[in-house]
Write a structure and sequence with these properties.
By secondary structure, the chain is mainly α. The protein folds into 2 domains: 10-175, Tetracycline Repressor, domain 2; 177-305, Up-down Bundle (Four Helix Bundle (Hemerythrin (Met), subunit A)), CATH 1.20.120. 81% of the residues lie in helices and 0% in strands. It is built from 15 helices and no strands. Helix 2 (29-45) packs across helix 8 (163-172), helix 12 runs antiparallel to helix 14 and helix 14 packs antiparallel against helix 15 (274-304). The structure holds protoporphyrin IX containing FE and farnesyl diphosphate. Residues 28, 31, 35, 63, 66-67, 70-71, 74, 78, 88, 130, 133-134, 137, 146, 159-160, 163 line the site of farnesyl diphosphate (FPP).
Length: 305
């Protein structure tokens, strides 16, 4: 008797935990984490001192919730396509772990709460910019650009590049030239980041009819464009130093990371292999994380000493 009564609540709590995991997965948590990280760097760089803790928490959580909700809408809209690609068929919607209606309710509640938090506890400017970013990714990129043009990720990349602007606006209530420089870094980084993945996943994108660059213009053309965007990224990544936003620590870190990224782009351009494209994609994430971490270390190093 005691075994059956204790087994029921235990099963319930396991089910609850599994549901939480499914909804959490809809938010693309690893991408959202890096997005929030870049937004937080925008907040820290916007002030010489420490960001007030309450503001830091409210802005980070609000941006995380809006970003997670945007990702959930993307999963909802693309569920049929996701079901046909090996990389994405394990997601909660194609697996039937959550329904479309549940996803709409979840994304609306989480996104709405995130935006409300930004409006009331941060400032209206940050809320409006985050809403524009949300629409840019969930609607303009996902519904219109992605199925229509190989420039989808170049134009749509503007949404992914917004978080430092959001973070900066959260602290200062303005869109500053410095935050635009951080935007440009992510904007120039997005094409090599995505096209490296699209190269080794090109057969899947072709199968589902997504007009990604390697599908529409071929592998060699894509490799050349990865290289060209990496050159642009190199120049843009030096702008924080050139503009006087950061010092020698950032300059050295940036030079090392950019030479490394460039080495990948050149190697990929000269001799293509799926393995190399995969390594470059993985490195792109390390690159952006470390570049933004270097901005932070540099900022507080000079502040502290
Ligand atoms: C339009 C712009 C972008 C496109 C098209 C894009 C595309 C992708 C794709 C297709 C993946 C693979 C996901 C998977 O295998 O499930 C990925 C992974 C990733 N992206 Fe992006 N991305 C973009 C912008 C960004 C931005 C702005 C960030 C962060 C600042 C970011 C961070 C990441 C991270 C951290 C991963 C690894 C996720 C994991 O390991 O599960 N991406 N991206
Ligand atoms: C409100 C706010 C801060 C929003 C941030 C916008 C956002 C979530 C940008 C990230 C871009 C992203 C996850 C692209 C993945 O490409 P994809 O969706 O084409 O990849 P998939 O094929 O894996 O679905």
């Amino acid at each position: 008797m005691s075994i059956t009564t204790s087994a029921v609540p235990q099963r319930k709590s396991i089910q609850l935990w599994q549901s939480f995991q499914h909804f959490f997965a809809l938010c693309k948590p690893r991408v959202t984490s890096l997005i929030v990280f870049t937004a937080m760097i925008g907040m820290f760089l916007a002030t010489p001192g420490m960001v007030p803790l309450g503001l830091l928490l409210a802005a980070s959580l609000g941006i995380a919730m809006a970003s997670g909700a945007a990702a959930a809408f993307n999963c909802l809209i693309e569920q049929q396509i996701d079901a046909r690609m090996a990389r994405t068929r394990g997601r909660p919607l194609p697996q039937g772990q959550v329904s479309s209606l549940q996803t709409v309710i979840f994304a609306s509640v989480v996104g709405g709460l995130g935006l409300a938090m930004l409006y009331f506890w941060v400032n209206p400017l940050t809320m409006w910019l985050t809403l524009a970013t949300f629409v840019g990714y969930a609607v303009i990129y996902t519904i219109f650009l992605k199925p229509a043009t190989p420039l989808n990720i170049v134009i749509g990349g503007a949404s992914g590049a917004m978080p430092p602007i959001l973070g900066w606006a959260a602290v200062t209530n303005v869109v500053s030239p410095e935050s635009l420089i951080l935007f440009l870094i992510i904007f120039a980084w997005t094409p090599p980041h995505f096209w490296a993945l699209a190269l080794y996943r090109r057969a899947e994108y072709a199968k589902v009819g997504m007009p990604m660059l390697p599908v529409t213009h071929g592998e060699e053309f894509t490799r050349l464009h990865i290289l060209l965007y990496t050159v642009i990224l190199f120049a843009v990544a030096l702008m924080p130093f050139g503009h006087g936003m950061s010092g020698v620590i950032y300059l050295v870190a940036s030079l090392i990371l950019n030479v490394w990224f460039m080495a990948y782009a050149i190697a990929l351009y000269r001799h293509y292999s799926d393995g190399l494209a995969q390594r470059m994609f993985r490195f792109s994430i390390i690159y952006l994380s470390l570049l933004f971490a270097a901005l932070l270390v540099d900022h507080y190093w000079y502040f502290t000493w």
